[in-house]
Amino acid sequence: MSQAVAQKEKTEVAVSNLSSLLEEEAGAGLENFTTDDMQIPFIRILQALSPQLNKQDSMYIKGAEQGDIFNTVTQEVYKAEVWLLYLVILRRSSWSLHLDQVVVVL
Description:
It is a single chain. By secondary structure, this protein is an alpha+beta fold. The protein has two helices and five strands. It has a domain of about 45 residues.
């Protein structure tokens, strides 16, 4: 039986210029991105104390009435008689546990 040891061939590591490409394209696609695009819309039911119903408030919306539905981003008001379809697309829950200044995210 032969005691010959196989020699491992050299393996070259591919060198990438990915970081330089990423730096060149940094911010691409965000030219027209504003804070309005980052807002999370909420659907609210206008109630008697809602600022959208108070004529002295800067958030007052003419024609809005108690019981109407209000979109916080578009500032649109939907009359109470109109039905809205509400579809949950993503739900994520997360818990964090703090042990002696170490944060563990579950």
